[in-house]
Here is the input.
Amino acid sequence: MKQEISKYMGLLYEHGLTSSLSGNVSARAEHFVFISPTKIPSYRIRPADVSVVTMAGEHLEGKPPSSELPTHLAIYNAMEPSAIVHAHSRFATALSCLGGDLESPDVEGKHLLGRVPLIPYAEPGTSDLGAAVSHGIRGFKGALLQNHGLIAIGDNLEQAFIVAEAIERAAQLVFDLKVISRP
Here is the structure.
């Protein structure tokens, strides 16, 4: 599991879905959560750096966990996905700042994502954000976090990553269509 966390943090950076110190990923295995550490550039996270915590948030091993641990735990406690990806990608973040849900304009995005709701702003790293996201994401594969980026869930990290990438692509298509259709 630690290897996968390291791998997907690197992929988020390589695909332009995060800057070096933003975004985080986690995966649940029974009563434990493996989550990317805080303050280590995403392209440099090694398996030994990955934080392991209990479902109650007790840090067991690895570097200190991401500041978004409360949000990840709130989602796991509310819904039972097995993996979460949180990214600060360019287009999804821009769209989240403008407000409103995301409806993918293309058939692929509609099929893969459906509607992507906007979760109202709450301070990052807080239990308020965790409560808002765990409530607002129910029934969806991902969500925009107002002024903050995107969050995607899945049965595994690959699935959550694919959803995160699809949200960013849909947000970029919305932007491109607005630019192209301007008079």
Observations:
- The chain has a mean pLDDT of 96.
- The beta strands are 24-29, 32-35, 51-54, 59-61, 83-87, 102-103, 115-116, 118-119, 142-145, 149-154.
